[in-house]
Amino acid sequence: MIEFKAISKKWPDGTAALTDVTVAIPKGQFCVILGPSGAGKSTLLRAVNGLMQPTNGAVVIDGVTLTAATARTLRQRVAMIHQHFNLTLRMSVAANVLAGLLPVVSTGRAILGWFTPEHRAKACALLERVGLTPKHLQRRAGELSGGQQQRVGVARAFMLDPEVVLADEPVASLDPKISREILGLIHDAAQERNATVLCSLHQVDLAREFGDRIVGMRDGVIVFDGTPEEFTDERVEALYHGAKWEDAPKVEDEVTFEAMPSNLVAA
Amino acid sequence: MGQSMNIKPIPVPAHGATIDWHLDQPYRAKHLFLLVIVLAVLLFTGHRTEMDKMVVMTGQALANVVGLADDSQVVRGLSRVGESMWPPAFGTEEEVARLTDLDRDNLPFLASIQTHERVEQKLNTDTLQLEEQREQVELLVKPLGYLWMVFIKMLETIEIAIWGTLLSVVLSIPLAWYAARNYTANKFTYTLARGTISLLRSMPELIVALFLVLAYGFGPIAGVLALGLHAAGFLGKFYAEDIENADKKPQEALEAIGAGKLKTLWYGVMPQVVPQYIAYTLYILDRNVRMATVIGLVGAGGIGQELKGRFDMFQYDHVATILIAIFIVVFLLDQFSARLRAKLI
C-alpha cells in the first residue's frame, strides 16, 4: 500500500511540479500514470524512493512514512526501472543484475565481486525469466540492444524481491512489439510476487492493456483516476487537452510534428 | 480507431513567402581589435624571448648547409658536439695495475687483456727538457662494458619510474574520491583534496627532487618520492574529473535502491572510468621514465646521474650511448603502452 498524502513539489525556480496530490495504491495493483510530458509523472514516482523530496506532504509505504531516517530501509523494498535502462554499460550483464543486490551485500564482498552461490543462481534465474540466454551473462551491457538492456534492467529490479516497483516510462525508447513484451514481463513478475507497480507511460493503448488502474495527470494534478474501462476516448481527449483521439500518443504512431508558422505552410 | 495513420506532410514554405530572419556575419569590429592586440603582444614577447634572433640564426644555419653562407654559429656548435659524440662509446678500458682483485685466468664475459704503449711527455730534471717516455700498459678491455653499465643504470631509472607511478596511483585514489564534487564528504574535504592536488601539481619534480636529495641523500628514494608526489597531483585531478563526468544514469539507478556511496562508485562509476584511468596511468609511467632520466641530474639516481657525470667530463661519446638508450626505452615503452591501451579499452 502506497499512500501519497497531499504531496506538493515546487522547483527552486518556483514552478510547481506537483500540487496537492493525494492518492493511495493498494498492494499488488498495477497502476499506470498517464499524462503529457511535464505533467509530473516522474516526479511523483521519485517521491516513493526519496530521489525527490516533496516540498509538502508525505509518502507512506505500508504504514511507514518515508523520511531521511527510514529511506535507507524503505529503498531496499522499492525497485526502479528506468526509461534509459540506467545500466553500467561497460560492466557485464551478470554484474549489472547482481548490482541490484548492493544494498544488502557487504562493501568488501561488493568490491571483490564475491557474491554467494544463491545470489548468483538468483541472477541467472531472473535473466532466464526475462528472456535472455546464458551467453548473455558475460557480455557487456552496452553491447546489447535497447530491448535486451531493459530486460536486464527488469531482472536487476527484481533481485531484491521488491514490494513496490517504480517504472519510469520503461518502454519510451523501445519499439511497439518489444514495449508490449517488456510491460508483460514487469506485469507478470510483479503479480507473481504480489508487488505493487507504479508505471508511467506515454502509450494509451498499453496503459489500457496492462493497467489495473489508470491515473491521469496534467500540470501536477490528478485529473483522472479509474479503471481502464472508465478511461474512455473522451477522457483521453480531455487528458491531452484539446488533442483529437487520433493525435493521442499510441504505440503505432510516435511521429510528432513541431508547429510551423502558418505563413510558411503551403496552402 | 487509428487505422488511418494520420501522417501529416512535412510543411514546406509557400511559394514567394518572405521571412524576417537574420543571420549575421560571425565577425565584428571587436574581433579585429582583439586580433591587433594579440599580434602586438606576440611581437613584444617575441622580441623579449629572442624569437627574431632565433629566426636569423636558423636561417643562417640553413643557408650554411646548402652552401649559401660561409659561417653559422649554430652549425659550428652542432657539428662540434656531433663529431665528439660519434661513435658512441660501448666499451670500457681499465688499467690492470689498478684492479686489485682481477683473476687473470677467469676474466669476465667478453673481456680481454690488451697491452698498449702509452707515450707521455715528461720533464727530465737533469736536462730540463721535455722527453717522450714510452710505457707498456696492460688494459682490461670490455667491448660492451659501458653498454652493460648503461643497461644497469637504465633499469634503475625504469624501476624508479615504476615505483613513482605506483606511489602516485596509491596516493591519488583517496585524493580523487575527496576531490570529486559528487562523492566528497563535505565542503572542507573537497577544498582540502583540491588544495593538495594543486600543491602537488605546482611543484616541478626537478625542484622537489633537489630538496628530497637533501633529505634522503643521493639515490633512488628521492627520485621515487619526487615522481610519485607530482604525478599523484596529476592523477588525482584527472581521476576526480572523470568521476564527476561519468554517466549519471547507472549511479542514479544504484542510488535509487540505496546502495551506498562506495558501492555506487564501484559499480556505477569505476567500470566507466577504468579505461581512462589506465590511459592516464600509462601516460604517467611514460612521463615518469622520461622524468626519471632528468631528475637523475640532481642526484636522484638512475641514468640521469650517469648522464650528468659524463656530460660534465665532456665525454660526449658516452653521452651519445646514454641518449640512444633513453630513446630506445622511451620508444619501446610507447609501443608497449599503445598495445596495452588498445587491448584494455
Question: Would you kindly provide a written description of the structure presented here, covering whatever features stand out?
Answer:
- With 267 residues, chain A is an alpha/beta fold.
- Chain A contains nine helices and ten strands.
- Chain A has a six-stranded mixed beta sheet with strand order 6-7-8-3-9-10, sandwiched between helices. In chain A, strands 2-1-4-5 form a four-stranded antiparallel beta sheet, covered by helices on one side.
- In chain A, strand 4 and strand 5 form a beta hairpin.
- In chain A, helix 5 packs across helix 6 and helix 6 runs parallel beside helix 7.
- Chain B is mainly α and 345 residues long.
- Helices cover 64% and strands 9% of the residues of chain B.
- Chain B has eleven helices and three strands, in the order αααβββαααααααα.
- Chain B has a three-stranded antiparallel beta sheet, with no helix packed on it.
- In chain B, helix 8 packs antiparallel against helix 9 and helix 9 packs parallel to helix 10.
- At the A-B interface, helix 2, strand 6 and helix 4 of A face helix 8 and helix 9 of B.
Question: How is the largest sheet of chain A built, in terms of strand order?
Answer: 6-7-8-3-9-10
Order of helices and strands of chain A: EEEHEEHEHHHHEHEHEEH
Low-confidence stretches of chain A: 248-267
The outline of chain A comes out as globular
Q: What is the number of helices of chain A?
A: 9
Global structural class of chain A: alpha/beta
Strand order of the largest sheet of chain B: 1-3-2
Q: Provide the β-strand percentage band of chain A.
A: 15-25%
